[in-house]
Write a sequence for this structure.
């Protein structure tokens, strides 16, 4: 008997490549180009890189396969999908609600940051940072984010772009966009890396980035790498579940596709370091510039480079593409849930979500200016939403996914399901102890550290 989704002709990916590009595009975003380099800079470069790759292999790949695999089984978005798998009222269904709420909160401030990126793209293109010092760049940044009218104006741009793309559907909107955007993104990143490596003095940055200095490793380094892997792959935001639900059952080698997705995500993070660190060392700028790397450090770096303005335009355009592919995944996740729960059309659900997330972004925008005096547990609104969604909800969602495999789905059934379609690459049965014990324990450690 056909499922309700099949009867109404539920959308699916037009090709295997479409899923890989869309899922890797969701994972590839600010986490790779901004967060990974500055964390590597603060944690000794090469040593952090090695630990990060190890964690991605042991934890990132299995949890991505869990979430995408559940979506493929359910053939529905996370909330309705888990109801189908477990029955109404089952406590495990909270995973879908938790992931969707997390996606909503992340999207509320992600829109604001995308607005900042569009603003800086235009500022660099107009030469606004020529002859500027790092102190002056910091003032420009602080003045801009404290101006809600300007930020809201720039935030409208990515909001509308996301709405138009997602409203066109999985095959004709999301897949069509990522098939153009992702190859362009990778080519541009390689061009920027080659340019950065050609700068005099850049070799020192490459050596620092690739040569492990294990004396720099602390407990904090390992936990930073764990948190970054989680943040980058986007586990616990119901997006992998949603994208997995558009895969045709028993016609996808999920183990191979998942490996491609995570490999692309990790490769982009690695390549981002080859863009940033050689350039920093070429102009004697400390690699541990921290979170201000993009908006304060980089504008002054661009001014010192040969063809710096062109480099800066390409760099910010690159980040915008990465941010858009992540934003698409978040909007699709939210819109799919709304459409299935309320029984409404895609376009209607998309514009409801676009309006809701834009409205929710306003408190975060105001918290950097007129509402900066409002604090929740010592944090401004933006900081609190970021902390609550990233450090608590994201890790809690990942923990519940890990426990669902152990106690509900069963690890053997999960491995069999992931390997259901034959292929060269299979998820190894020998990884059962990792899925059963190591992953849940590690996620608990991440969560405790986040709370502390």
């Amino acid at each position: 008997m056909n499922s309700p989704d099949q009867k109404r002709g539920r959308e699916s990916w037009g090709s295997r490549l479409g899923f890989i590009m869309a899922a890797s595009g969701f994972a590839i975003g600010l986490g790779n180009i901004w967060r990974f380099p500055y964390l590597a800079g603060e944690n000794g470069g090469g040593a952090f890189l090695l630990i990060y790759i190890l964690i991605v292999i042991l934890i990132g790949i299995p949890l991505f396969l869990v979430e995408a695999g559940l979506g493929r089984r359910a053939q529905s978005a996370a909330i309705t999908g888990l109801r189908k798998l477990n029955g109404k009222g089952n406590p495990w269904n909270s995973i879908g609600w938790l992931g969707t709420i997390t996606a909503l909160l992340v999207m509320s401030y992600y829109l604001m940051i995308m607005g900042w990126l569009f603003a800086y793209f235009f500022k660099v293109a107009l030469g606004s940072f020529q002859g500027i010092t790092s102190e002056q760049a910091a003032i420009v940044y602080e003045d801009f984010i404290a101006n809600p009218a300007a930020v809201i104006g720039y935030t409208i741009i990515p909001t509308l772009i996301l709405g138009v793309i997602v409203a066109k559907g999985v095959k004709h909107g999301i897949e069509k966009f990522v098939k153009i955007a992702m190859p362009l993104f990778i080519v541009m990143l390689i061009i920027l890396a080659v340019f950065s490596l050609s700068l005099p003095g850049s070799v020192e940055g490459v050596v620092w980035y690739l040569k492990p200095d294990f004396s720099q490793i602390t407990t904090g380094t390992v936990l930073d790498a764990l948190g970054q892997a989680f943040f980058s792959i986007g586990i616990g935001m119901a997006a992998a579940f949603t994208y997995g639900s558009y895969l045709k059952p028993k016609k996808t080698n999920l183990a191979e596709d998942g490996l491609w997705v995570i490999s692309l995500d990790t490769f982009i993070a690695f390549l981002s370091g080859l863009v940033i660190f050689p350039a920093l060392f070429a102009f004697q700028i400390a690699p541990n510039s921290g979170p201000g790397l993009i908006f304060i450090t980089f504008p002054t770096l661009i001014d010192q480079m040969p063809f710096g303005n062109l480099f800066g335009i390409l760099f910010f355009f690159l980040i915008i593409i990465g941010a858009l592919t992540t934003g698409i995944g978040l909007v699709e996740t939210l819109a799919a849930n709304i459409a299935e729960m309320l029984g409404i059309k895609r376009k209607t659900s998309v514009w409801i979500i676009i309006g809701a997330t834009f409205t929710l972004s306003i408190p975060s925008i105001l918290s950097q200016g007129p509402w900066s005096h409002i604090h929740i547990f010592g944090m401004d609104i933006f900081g609190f939403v970021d902390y609550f969604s990233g450090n608590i909800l994201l890790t809690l969602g990942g923990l519940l996914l890990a426990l669902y495999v152990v106690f509900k789905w069963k690890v053997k059934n999960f491995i069999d399901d992931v390997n259901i379609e034959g292929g060269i690459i299979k998820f190894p049965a020998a990884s059962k102890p990792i899925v059963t014990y190591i992953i849940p324990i590690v996620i608990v450690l991440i969560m405790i550290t986040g709370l502390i």
